[in-house]
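Re: that chain you flagged

S.,

Sorry for the slow reply, it's been a week of failed gels. I finally had a moment to sit down with the sequence you sent. For the record, here it is as I used it:
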Amino acid sequence: MPKVSIIITTHSRPRLLPRAVESARRSGREAEIVVVDDASTDETREVCRTLSGVRYVRLERNRGVAGARNVGILASAGEFLNFFDDDDERQPDSLDAQAERLESEPRAALVYGQALVIEGLGAEAERVYPSDCPQGDVFWELLGQNFIPGGSVLFRRSCLMRVGLLDESVPGLDDWDLWVRLAERFPVVAWERPVYRWRRSSPGSGQGSSSGARMVRMAVRQFRERWVRLGRAAAAPRSARRAAWHAFSDGMARHLIWETVRAQAEGRTLQAAENMLTGLRLLPSATLRVPFDRRRARAVLTRLREVPPTRH
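Prediction finished late last night. Pasting the structure tokens below so you have them in one place:
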């Protein structure tokens, strides 16, 4: 039985897939690699047949990333699991190192690392994310902000079975939702090193996570209807829930302002306007407050300098 299973989801991007598989091989010496083809309509099936040592699972109906990951979980055999996108690259030996770390912390549900961020089609950014890596009991911190890069996580199947599979009704937030549910019950371990290259979607990429307004609307609904109703949050004093909402609102407002600037830089004025209107409607106080906070304004400006110019 493999100790680690790497689940790579893909949809109609056969040119990227071999590189992702090769980086997965380098990251774990004896890891099981499961490729879930989410109903691709091109030559992805043929490309997968040329990849040795890979378990290939094809879906005939597109289920989105969360659905494909759930299929991969059920098709895999490892006790430790990692999600991987077909445009990401894992660092050599990174999963082996994280597996050793997780084995040394038997109470922990997951170990996460840092990501080297690539903005759109630009060069690799000089920063890593996150710069600070909280660990231990991080439940309340995760309610405020998702600081865990999805592809950096190695988590226990046994803990996943306690909280349930990914929620397919919140595409793009499915990993954050899972980390929140795991962190409510179990400690989290941080491996404070870059473990993979993460290519962020741009406002014009058409990916689900590229719409800032849509993502924030889903996140607000998930926070109000699910996360604060989890056992620990529901039993906590109202002041704790208010503090969590304040941190969450500030984080979502910063995200919307950042995505507004990115969309405007790409000439997507309607998308930029939708982002700001969403913030003013759902998070009015935070959306008006964040631009006047000097520290946060500097953070946005720093991020802006890292974005490569758009080529038309």
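What I noticed first: Strands lie at 4-10, 32-38, 54-59, 80-85, 89-90, 110-119, 124-129, 154-156, 188-200.

Talk soon,
D.
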